[in-house]
Write a structure and sequence with these properties.
The chain is mostly helical and 82 residues long. The chain has helices at residues 2-14, 20-23, 26-35, 42-51, 58-77.
Amino acid sequence: MRSILLLAVVSLTACATINASECRNPYDVGFRDGIFGLQRQEDVYQPICTRNGAQLDTARYVEGWTEGKYEFDRRKAHGGVD
């Protein structure tokens, strides 16, 4: 059971990728994550952006995520998301 959980965590973490141009558009990345119902990922993206020579504006990311999450929840409440 423990190995299955570890595999799931590694698999989900591997999905959290961002490139240098996306680091410059944190609102869009946050909105994308939110509208897909993902948890906030700024702690995962920040070191990736730094390695790519960019800085992630976490406040803008959170703003975009909040808007995307709101839209995700609104659509879910009206039957638009399974």
